[in-house]
Amino acid sequence: MKYVDEFRNEADARRLLDAIGRRITRPWSIMEICGGQTHTFVRFGIDRMLPEQVTLVHGPGCPVCVTPLELIDRALEIARRREVIFTSFGDMLRVPGTRGDLLSAKAAGADVRIVYSPLDAVQLAQKHPDRQVVFFAVGFETTAPANAAAVFEAHRRGLENFSILVAHVLVPPAMEAILGSEHNQVQAFLAAGHVCAVMGYHEYEPLAERYQVPIVVTGFEPTDLLRGTLMAVEMLEEGRWGVENQYARAVSRAGNRSAQELVARMFSVVDRKWRGIGGIPASGLGLRPEFVAYDAERRFDVSAVAAEESPECIAGLILQGLKKPHECSAFGVACTPEHPLGAPMVSSEGACAAYYNYRRGEAVSEATAHGGGS
To answer: Is residue 251 assigned to a domain?
Structure first.
């Protein structure tokens, strides 16, 4: 494809692999934050072409995967109400709650609709003044500006039948939670380029300094990831820490100031629970007090809905980089895209989905050999 092929060039990839091989002298563990990066590593087999001294650790950068189970159940409770048109991006429809998913709710008669922008949901609210239109606002900092714009526009139009179910999470607090854990195995990070395109990378600098780790802002194509890995290896080998930017064609240190200002106007930082991980202080976004009228969780009084995770699913360990998908005994057997136990199996950015799509046979064999799920 135009503008993509140059970042999938085989000769360039081999040169970068050779450069990594020449530079590395000892084992290093590097975490790619974003699930999209995980899919590229696995789809193109890059993780297997890297020197054996490089251990890639898959991180929690799949917002669909870390949306708490009880929030999925709250979404289901809202969606099943007769007066509601429940809207979402398509990647949330198969994420399992304790009693089905949004797709099964739709099959049972709920008015669940896929939209391609939260502003489409605002348009639906304008078109159907007799219905309550709810948008499932899931994502990292990448999607926050569009969701902020939707609330701003609904407020500007005076729409009283529009609200959002907020599930926004923030990347730096998750990285800090990983680095501060006694079980941490990560020595360097490949940061998500699309998040940094919005927020810049100045937020990562105190984190790199505090924990003395390299953080490389990286794109999503094979040569992006290889160049980012090379930069991380060079920093590790030289004993340097800080933030470097491989993705300069899309990311600046400051980021998109207009988007940041819109997010800050509509949202404030709140504590947030992450599916499979638990609560992380100041790791999410919630609507500011002046905009709580657009908070679906309050409007429909579902905040008391609680849920318990499946004991068979080790998604939390996978999202923290402590396990890989094939180390789960349920992988590809009790847990498949048709019957998922956890979100990483059905999300387009989930690590389990990457292994299932591109490495199913051998991963299932290894999972069966492991026997136990944890």
So the answer is: no
Residue 234 placed within a domain: yes
Q: Which of 287, 300, 291 has its CA nearest to residue 83?
A: 300
Shared domain check, 237 and 178: yes
Domain annotation covers residue 69:
yes
- Whether 363 is covered by a domain: the verdict is yes
Residues 214 and 285 in one domain: no
Q: Is the pLDDT reported for residue 370 higher than 70?
A: no
- pLDDT above 80 (res 3): no
* Same-domain pairing of 52 and 74: no
Q: Output the DSSP codes for 196-233.
A: HHHH-STTHHHHHHHHT-EEEEE-SSHHHHHHHHHHHH
pLDDT, tens digit (0-9, with 9 covering 90-100), for 77-127: 999 999 999 999 998 999 989 889 999 999 999 999 999 999 999 999 999
**By 3-state DSSP, what share of the chain in percent is helix, strand and coil, each rounded to 5?**
45, 20, 35
* Nearest residue to 197 via CA among 237, 158, 141: 141
Are 74 and 125 contained in the same domain?
yes
Length of the chain: 374
**Residue entry with tokens 């008391």:** 304
Q: Are strands 214-218 and 188-192 parallel, antiparallel or unpaired?
A: parallel
- CA 140 to centroid of chain Cα atoms: 6
DSSP letter at 291 equals G
What are the structure tokens assigned to 149, written together? 């714009």
The position carrying tokens 């069966």 is: 368
- Helix and strand element counts for the chain (H, E): 16, 11
Q: Give, as one character, the DSSP assignment of residue 248.
A: T
**Structural domain boundaries, residue 195:** 5-61+171-245
Among 206, 222, 245, residue at a domain's last position: 245
DSSP character string of 2-35: TTTGGGG-HHHHHHHHHHHHHH--S-EEEEEEEH
Query: Are 163 and 280 found together in one domain?
Result: yes
Whether 2 has a pLDDT exceeding 70, the answer reads no
Helix (H) or strand (E) holding 129: none
User: Domains in the chain: how many in total?
Assistant: 3
